[in-house]
Amino acid sequence: MAATVVAVLGASGVYGRHLVPRLAASGYRVRALVRTPASAAVGAAGGAEVHAADIFDGASLRGGLDGCDVAINLATSLPSPARQGGDFDLNDRLRREGVRIFLDACANAGVPRVVQQSIAMVHSGGGDAWADEEAMFPLLRDSIAGRAVMAARDMEAAVAASALDWLILRGALFYGPGTGLDDDWFARGRAGKLRLPGTGDDYVSLVHIADMADATLAALSRWPSRQSLIVADDAPPRWRDVFGYIAAAAGGPAPAPGGPARFPSFRVSNARAREALGWSPRYPSYRIGLAR
To answer: Phi/psi zone of residue 60: left (φ > 0), alpha (ψ -120 to 50 degrees), beta?
Structure first.
């Protein structure tokens, strides 16, 4: 039997760099759709065939998707400590315009199944309340976080309206190797420059990047058709607990309040993903995932 061919758009990002070698090791034939020669090297090193494609160029996408059984869209442009040149406006455009071009290209290339990366921050704004996949809360649309979440919600609506067989994975805040996030936190903790977002009372839901990749691999095997699933660890903490742990582990002073808040509180449950995917996080809490 021929191997299942899986296209990964955005294969050179941190999510893709963890996912591609897992797919290849599991027997999938992986096709990395990338824009630049540097990105091609990353995809090839992970065990993928490499095709040049751009999410805003439908013709290049169709060429890269031809003959694929599943297409996974991981394309983002979010600013992060590990990314140079990330841009919130471009990321919103990727989600609103790019995803529609991607879906059309999949349909035209005859790709029957698509996996779309989304964010568990679509459930932000609920304060201390636990959120499952149906819980949505009002947001300040004129804030950067509000605009980003609304773009993600619009993206999800486009995927759900597609005639393709789709799956949406709403990842919590990524940390772990390659994300740059925890490295930045520990560096600031050691330097005494770590500041709590606001008062530090808001909840933040985290997921180790290895757990996100493992959940995606499980999704291809189980394929819970036309579902949106939250992928997060088991125990969302408050920011003060995370940053307090980091400061203590780094040997720095306790973090003071008053830092910028990136997005409203979100405390999400991974129960549905656990059941649908037969998956559980290897790093069920930040204390395990951040251990050094």
So the answer is: alpha
- Residue 1 confidence (pLDDT) above 70: no
H helix intervals, the chain: 14-25, 37-45, 58-65, 88-93, 99-109, 144-160, 181-191, 209-222, 239-250, 271-277, 286-289
pLDDT band at 82 (very low <50, low <70, confident <90, very high): low
Amino acid occupying residue 252: G
What pLDDT is attached to residue 87?
A: 78
Rounded Cα–Cα distance for residues 103 and 86 (Å): 23
Identify the pLDDT of residue 83: 53
Structural tokens at position 29: 């034939």
Instruction: Indicate the angle between helix axes 181-191 and 239-250, nearest 10 degrees.
Output: 60
For the segment 12-49, what is each residue's pLDDT rounded down to a tens digit? Answer: 999 999 999 999 999 999 999 998 877 778 888 889 99
Q: What is the DSSP string of 250-267?
A: HT-PPPEEEEPP-S---E
CA distance 95 to 82: 21
Would you give the distance in Å from CA 264 to the centre of its chain? Answer: 18
Which SS3 state, helix, strand or coil, does residue 52 take?
Answer: strand
Phi, psi of 224 (to 5 degrees): -80, 85
Q: Which of 25-29, 34-38, 258-262, 276-280 has the lowest mean pLDDT?
A: 34-38
Cβ-based burial of 285 (10 A; exposed 0-12, middle 13-18, buried ≥19) = middle
Question: Which residue type occupies 263?
Answer: F
What CA–CA distance (Å, rounded) separates 40 from 285? 34
Query: Would you give the distance in Å from CA 271 to the centre of its chain?
Result: 18
Walk me through the domains of the chain, giving residue ranges and CATH numbers. 5-171+209-232+269-280 (3.40.50.720)
The candidate with the shortest Cα–Cα distance to 198, out of 255, 127, 145, 261, is 261
